[in-house]
Amino acid sequence: MQRRTLLAAAASAAASVIALPASAQGAYPNKPVKIILGLAPGASTDASTRLLAQHLQEVTGQTFVVDNRPGAGSTIGAAAVAASPPDGYTLFMGTGSYATSAALYPNLSFDPVKSFRPITQLNRFPSAIGVQASSPIRSLPQLIELAKAQPGTIPFASTGHGGQTHFAGELFQQITGTKLVHVPYKGGGPAMQDVLAGRVPLIFVDLFTLLPHWRQGTVRILAVTGTKRAEAAPDVPTAQELGVRGFEVVAWLGLFAPAGTPDAVVDYLQKAVATVGKREAFIKRMADSGAEVVASTPAEFTQFFQREVELYRRVAQSANIKLE
Fold it and tell me: Residue 118 in 3-state DSSP?
């Protein structure tokens, strides 16, 4: 009985492994695959990347290792991948803030767009606009009205100068015709501490950072910045519902390979991620963090990433955002 159970389990595991195209059978992957993340361990992006690596190992039968190389807006990690052999064994996990870095860093050793082959956008989750629960600002229209009446007097926190949440605040001002004061922090944790303490009245940040405080009742979310309401906070309206048209800023994770990586390898990896993206356990973990699984095709992700970079280049030029 025990032997039959073990054999059944082995057969089930073998069936779950993604098969390679016949033309590439046995060529890839036949050794561990490294995923370089340009952010420090411990953040939500790190947790999501490690979760993906775990599931990829299960569906491919090969080891996937996460290598954190933080610094310079993820461009240190990106440079390492861009200089790696295009064989599919060194990949880059990009984020929404990498798109802003691509718009800001003028003298990189690589082209932030052309040096990579986008494989798939793993997930997406909206940024959000939050205030302390006791704040007199109770709605997004009220914030806009107050900001127009008192231009240049309301500070907003972001997770860092030149990051995606900084760009979210700048885009919001451009669309609404308001003037806020940017207060950059080194990450979402320090920014949230000052918002909760009442030292900064407003924050633009990814929904993942706000959710636990919102659930505890210590933060009010004025709006999410996607085109639809977040499943994790269905009662919170979108900024577009409240009249801020064209204001869409989404945080995301996406997998890249060095330029020149063969089509068969890119297709294999996209199919592997898509298989992971259908797993109930994976979907639930993503949903718990406010994220929606995407698992787009390489062509879809290429178009999305290029639009992101162009958007942030326009915002940077309009707001005169430069690296300090």
Answer: strand
Q: Which CATH number fits the domain that encloses residue 152?
A: 3.40.190.10
Tell me the whole-structure pTM to 2 decimals. 0.85
User: Mean pLDDT, to the nearest integer, of 6-35?
Assistant: 60
H or E element: which one contains 172?
Answer: helix 164-176
Residues 103 and 21 in one domain: yes
Query: How many C-beta atoms surround the C-beta of residue 322 within 10 A?
Result: 10
Residues 141, 198 within the same domain: yes
What stretch of H or E contains 257?
strand 250-258
Supply the Cα-derived Rg of the chain in whole angstroms: 21
Length of the chain: 324
Same domain, 96 and 25: yes
Res. 105 pLDDT band, cuts 50 70 90: confident
Q: Which residues of 97-109 are buried (b: 16+ CB within 10 A; e: fewer)?
A: bbbbbbbbeeebe
